[in-house]
Design brief:
alpha/beta; globular; 2 domains; 16 strands; 9 helices; Rossmann fold; disordered N terminus; 22% helix; nine-stranded mixed sheet; 414 residues; three-stranded antiparallel sheet
């Protein structure tokens, strides 16, 4: 069974077929790609590395199909074509943009994590901005009435509790319910080269864990959309009419450094790398550097034994009320800890933090939140029981092996 295109394509492009070994019905999907240029053996040594070209930059593959359509765009500050925002680029090409849907952190990406994002008007273009964070996580039917097609273009970091994939899930669901086609402009995943962590179980579904995937799932946003659709993870087993423009010159092992910070507290390559390991600290009494110039590059606590490194969180951009505000934290600077590329979540740090605190204070002080981040209740119990990282990782293996089989059906890249 193949998942194949259901509409005409642009001249000079082709539909890529996705083999689906499951018995689920076909998805209505178009994957637009330029014809692949085959490399002859004698030319193989002359191949030059190219920086990945993101879906949004491949305008020739989708711009003509937007002409005359009323378009809604799900985007934020990472939605750029070169150095120009996608909204401005499409407007300059005569595309009619009816509205922008803004996820967590807002359209310009300057809101704190969890901070309310208000609907407003974009000052530069006058286009209405509708928040998809807070109570309105999914577009309402009346918000899609005047729309012909929805575009999703947001840079992901490949981590389950990074809520942009939850926004994608809800947008797909709204498009399926209201018979709107969704165009996903794919982007590389900076953590797309590995898969790790506990797979979310059904008891802990939440906005930081919408789908049954591990913490690090090794897929681009386009591949993830295919999986949500193909596995029928949306409510009522809905499927969305998908149109995907893939990246060019990208494979999963590609080292990709984000050109724009994806959110206020993921400002650097090292922070994006450390995020899968350090975000679990968010449900504990340990600071990970929010309120400093380098969030997600350290961890510490005022009651840790004295260390060679200290930091003091203060109210600042992206952290208006940081944990341990104005308190000196003894801790560890992880900026230079990644001598090699990361291929797994580092459980050693959270185990070390528990040992350093001992019984001084409550360590995991937000039990429900920790379980939602972990995707299960077992990880918290394992850490508190003193299990080793190896023992904990062994418990993940059966579910990870099963997920890898599911994932393999939806990969667009080598």
């Amino acid at each position: 069974m193949f998942l194949i295109a259901s509409c005409s394509l642009l001249a000079g492009s082709e539909t890529k077929k996705i083999e689906n070994t499951s018995t689920k019905p076909k998805q209505e999907i178009t994957i637009i790609e330029e014809p692949i240029e085959e490399i002859r053996p004698e030319e193989a040594k002359q191949v030059v590395y190219h920086e990945p070209i993101v879906g949004a930059e491949r305008l020739n593959l989708y711009i003509d199909s937007l002409k005359g359509k009323r378009v809604a765009i799900v985007s934020n500050q990472t939605s750029v074509v070169g150095k120009t925002h996608l909204v401005d680029t499409l407007l300059s090409k005569g595309v009619i943009i009816a509205k922008v849907f803004a996820p967590e952190h807002g359209f310009r990406g300057d809101m704190d994590a969890g901070e309310k994002v208000n609907s407003s008007i974009d000052e530069k273009t006058g286009i209405p901005i509708i928040s998809l964070y807070g109570k309105n996580k999914k577009p309402y039917p009346d918000q899609l009435e005047d729309v012909d097609i929805v575009i999703y273009d947001i840079q992901d970091v490949g981590v389950r509790f990074y809520t942009y994939i939850s926004t994608l899930h809800y947008v797909m669901e709204a498009c399926a319910e209201n018979h709107k086609r969704l165009l996903v402009l794919d982007r590389p995943n900076p953590n797309g080269h590995y898969i790790d962590g506990p797979v979310r179980d059904n008891a802990h579904k939440s906005f930081v864990g919408m789908d049954p995937v591990p913490i690090v799932y090794g897929m681009t946003i386009g591949e993830y959309a295919l999986m949500v659709n193909g596995e029928r993870w949306m409510s009522d087993s809905l499927q969305c009419s998908l149109w995907i423009v893939p990246c060019k010159y990208y494979v999963h092992k590609t080292k990709y450094i984000l050109p724009v910070a994806p959110s206020p507290n993921l400002r650097t390559e090292i922070a994006v790398t450390l995020y899968p390991s350090l975000c679990l600290f968010e449900a504990t009494s340990i600071s990970i550097g929010r309120g400093t110039e380098r969030p997600f590059e350290m961890f510490g606590h005022p009651l840790f034994p004295k260390t060679d490194y200290t930091f003091t969180p203060i109210p600042s951009y992206g952290a208006k009320s940081p944990l341990w505000e104005n308190r000196v934290c003894n801790g560890f600077d992880l900026q230079h800890s990644q001598k090699r590329r990361t291929y797994e979540i580092n459980l050693g740090w959270i185990i070390q933090a528990k040992l350093l605190l001992g019984d001084t204070v409550e360590f995991i002080n937000q039990t429900d939140f920790f379980n939602r981040l972990a995707g299960n209740s077992a990880l918290r119990q394992q850490i508190l029981a003193g299990k080793t990282a190896k023992e904990i990782r062994e418990s993940w293996k059966p579910d990870l092996d099963n997920f890898k089989k599911i994932r393999a059906k939806y990969l667009l890249y080598k």
